[in-house]
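Kindly go through the entry underneath: sequence plus fold tokens. Please state briefly how this chain folds according to its tokens.
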Amino acid sequence: MGTPRLPSRPLPRRLVTACLLAAWAGLLAAGFGVLSAHAGTPGAVGRPQDGDSPAGAAVLPGPSAAPGDLVVVLALHPRCPCTRSSLLAARRTVETARRAGVGVSLRVLARRPAGGGDWEGRGPDILADLPTEIAVIDDPGGAIASRLGALTSGHVCAFEATDDGVRPIYHGGVTPGRGHEPAAGHCPPLLEVLLDPPAEVRRTPVFGCPLTRVERGDD
């Protein structure tokens, strides 16, 4: 005769529940870690090209600008999920600088397909309700942004009008991470530059999607 088999006993329900909860918590922690790493990974930053911009008069301070006047140029991709937070952060920063007495304007470069088309069907058109003092400039294929060295959606370039022309004062991002806005009470680097323009260009990381990525229906 063989050894008699003992009847199997099911695991206590509490133990099963505890194991499931532990596994679920581990998955959540792993997913949160991946999202946090992605949110904190900066995008590419290019080098500004010398020479006249293809839309210099529209992007840079014009001949009528007084010395000390500032222009903030924000490059956006219509499909980047961070576009809303980048635009909101830029608007709040510029408005805060204005309340402090700074003469500054905001201009938005809206990347559009090089072959034509618009933002329709590419997510909510958050540019439609912007106040008239914010200039929205079409940028087919991201050509203007590329000349400014902007390769990532959410990239900001700031310029100051001088007696001799225009000089860059800021080259970087406007949010602390992908889809994140600056915390209340925090003075972002862009605001520091607008309030007290530095002698050298201030450079910071940019968080967003590539302006030049190829997607279905876009190029």
User: Anything to note?
Assistant: The first helix runs from residue 13 to 39. The longest strand covers residues 104-112.
